[in-house]
Amino acid sequence: MFADTRTTLTHPEARTGTSSVPRYQPRRPAAPVRRNRAALRRATPRKQTIRLVLLGILCTAGWLASLLVGHFVEFGPVLHCIGLAGHILALVLAFGTILVVDWLGLLWLMGKVHMHASPKLERATKPLIWGGLALLLASGALIQPDITNPVTAVKLGCVLILMLNGLSIGPAMHKMFALPRETSFSELGRRLRTRLLIALSISQACWWTAVLIGLVNSTLRRWAGL
């Protein structure tokens, strides 16, 4: 009798399956999630396009305001000297940064560096580039450019093209940075490769044109005693 009691206490009978409580497993609505993701993909390019258009209008308005102020407002010689110093500083700041970024892009084209070496540099240099361009517009109004001169008009047009080109290349850069780290330039899509090469060519051509015209105009003013 004691043996039976010990056996019952140390080896209780297993519970039957009827006493177990079934677990509740809710169903996940897969179809609405897919529809929401598809709608989000369609809405994202639209928002990016609207954002780029608004930024382009803002850049064009700032560029036009700089031209009008510099042409119609008369500044003294002191402000002219300050504007010239700020113009040179802005040129060094923006153009120097652009040269570094474009040089890194050239190294990537040659296979010397990985593609993902540039996103951090791009984020770090973006405030310098756009800050330099804003300073170029502000100081350009103080030095009073002669917009009736065709050569000066070409320089001013190059500045506007630079800003619009920098805005338009943003979506292509985001697509490129989303690719794997080991992706080479030859592995990119033909359309993306063409877009990057066109943007790089426009950037270098406009920057060098604006810099050379600015140097020539400044030299001619000194020779004329202005």
Produce the secondary structure layout.
Blueprint: H1 2-10, H2 30-72, H3 77-109, H4 119-142, H5 150-168, H6 170-177, H7 190-223
Task: Tell me about this structure.
The chain is elongated and about 55 Å long. With 226 residues, the protein is mostly helical. The chain has 7 helices and no strands. The chain has a domain at 62-217. The model is unreliable at 1-21 and 29-43 (pLDDT under 50). Helices cover 75% and strands 0% of the residues. The protein starts with a helix and ends with a helix. The longest helix is centred in the N-terminal third of the chain and has 43 residues, at 30-72. Helix 3 packs antiparallel against helix 4 (119-142) and helix 5 runs antiparallel to helix 7. It has helices spanning 2-10, 30-72, 77-109, 119-142, 150-168, 170-177, 190-223.
